[in-house]
């Protein structure tokens, strides 16, 4: 059990490196023995008074060095945790080959799919994740009040609470929610989607994984944005697919590079490209749909983060111009309802509706009924629409405040990339400043910044970061950015 560490916030060595070094010493001296379970990132961060990202980065560093291993749903253990089998003491005298032996994590006990989970490529994608970067990038700002959620829950329970456990469930989701989503999409997103074409999922990631499993065969290629969302790439690799990255510029994914490329599937974020924050141009939207039709391919449109739009004329979803039924639209209300619910939904093309229903029956049938009914109630009564409008205004103000504060304090060392939507700004810091120093100083000042390297298939830019503006008041942001600018400028001169 870890008791204490000697971390020094005034050291030039980043906190996560200090922590990794301390744990390494404890492993080497035997204070931490093979099989010892390490505290969760939340627990250790609270004990040390640092961010969870610091602990997660330290654990990631140790995992890459082979000192610790992460077990799904269990935690992090000192390497050797799998060697917990003991010789047979109940029946002494048995020959050695009859005694249970510790399994090889990637050995014959796993299926081919299981071995892919342990593969180096997939491990690299998972390790590239910035620890629990949701600490920085989750919308901790003006979420729907708990009171409104509770009131809606009470209404639902009074109306149909006793029937929840008895009613049959459609794998596509409750009809009440699918009808409410259909009206919402037509009203606010210019997308015509009848309720029977909408499928409700527990989360966007589950929706993406199900779609990859349905469309992509082993060894087939998925086109992705580079940089782009790493969660989709992980699903492709886990299902034995291949990744082909297409560069992103100020107009979105470069569709001219699709000519001559055959693939079964493309994944894009046309309304809000992550991490660049740009929208796909009208011309490139048309070119993407033409490519999909010619290649008999599907396009997954991930609408993640697009609703908080700051453009004077936000572009409608790609799905709204999809005359060939090639686009699978995936969205959620994550930007406005986190952490109250992660429910997501997809609009399935006609030819995929029954396959999606069947895979939902197997993998994600039990989306919480109460959450579905509460979300439907909030949509039906206009509460969620009002909340979205109010939140969009607040995010727009926070974004403007961040841009102003950055220009005042950091304009000589940082450049802001233009963006039209989302909850983060893309910032490039001068190459004269070490990226580790940027992250260390931001962490000390409790500024929500993460590097963009996990979004790139190869090696990403050295000093590119995402800065979230959803969780800081204007005054606090201005003060902390002023201090950050002073600290970084002093290093740049040294």
What this model shows, in words?
The chain is of the alpha/beta class. It has three domains: 15-132, Arc Repressor Mutant, subunit A (Orthogonal Bundle), CATH 1.10.10; 146-385, 3-Layer(aba) Sandwich (Aspartate Aminotransferase, domain 2), CATH 3.40.640; 393-493, Aspartate Aminotransferase, domain 1, CATH 3.90.1150.10. It has 17 helices and 14 strands. The protein has helices spanning 15-29, 41-48, 52-64, 112-117, 120-128, 134-137, 146-160, 175-189, 204-215, 230-238, 282-294, 334-337, 353-363, 369-380, 383-410, 435-444, 474-493; strands spanning 68-71, 75-78, 198-201, 221-226, 242-249, 252-253, 265-268, 298-302, 327-332, 344-347, 414-416, 424-429, 449-451, 464-468. It has an eight-stranded mixed beta sheet, sandwiched between helices. The chain has a four-stranded antiparallel beta sheet with strand order 11-12-14-13, with helices on one face. It is globular, with a radius of gyration of 24 Å. It starts with 14 loop residues before the first helix and ends with a helix. The relative contact order is 0.11. Mean pLDDT is 84; it is low at 81-92, 98-102 and 130-135.
How far apart the termini lie comes to 41 Å
Number of helices: 17
Instruction: Using the 3D structure, state the CATH architecture of the largest domain.
Output: 3-Layer(aba) Sandwich
**Helix- and strand-based class?**
alpha/beta
Q: What about the largest sheet?
A: 8 strands, mixed
**Spatial extent as radius of gyration:** 24 Å
What's the CATH C level of the largest domain? Answer: Alpha Beta
Indicate how many domains the architecture comprises.
3
Low-confidence stretches: 81-92, 98-102, 130-135
CATH level-4 homologous superfamily of the largest domain: Type I PLP-dependent aspartate aminotransferase-like (Major domain)
CATH topology of the largest domain: Aspartate Aminotransferase, domain 2
Beta-strand content: 5-15%
The helix content is 40-55%
Task: Please give the number of β-strands.
Answer: 14
Q: Which strand order spans the largest sheet, edge to edge or round the barrel?
A: 3-10-9-8-7-4-5-6
How would the global form be characterised? globular
Question: Mean of the pLDDT scores?
Answer: 84
